[in-house]
Amino acid sequence: MDQRPIDLCKKQLEEILIQARLEGKTHMDIIAGELHKVVFGSPAVKNRMPTCCDAMYDSKVKHDILYAPPKGKGSRLAIRYYLV
Asked: Which pLDDT score is estimated for 44?
């Protein structure tokens, strides 16, 4: 069974944050456009940017929004996730 796009984004985000923890980082900055590229390729067959943004906003990890596009979702959304 295929995973839903939001689950793919959440899984990749979780893997990135786990790797950053293993490397001893205290925080990790994620940009939606970069996450989208990793999960769906470039160029993506279908734009799933809003899905990636939802996954980033929904994260249970403590975070700060570094930049949010005017409508809240877009490739430049940047969030800092705290790993400690």
From this structure: 72
Q: Residues near 12 by Cβ (< 8 Å), separated by ≥ 6?
A: 35, 38, 39
* φ and ψ at residue 28, rounded to 5 degrees: -145, 130
Question: Bridge-partner residues for 27, per DSSP?
Answer: 82
Six-digit token string for 24: 């001893």
Tens of pLDDT, residues 52-74: 999 999 999 999 999 999 999 99
DSSP secondary structure of the chain:
-PPPHHHHHHHHHHHHHHHHHHTT-SEEEEEHHHHHHHHHTTTTSS--HHHHHHHHHH-SS-EEEEE--TTS-STT-EEEEE--
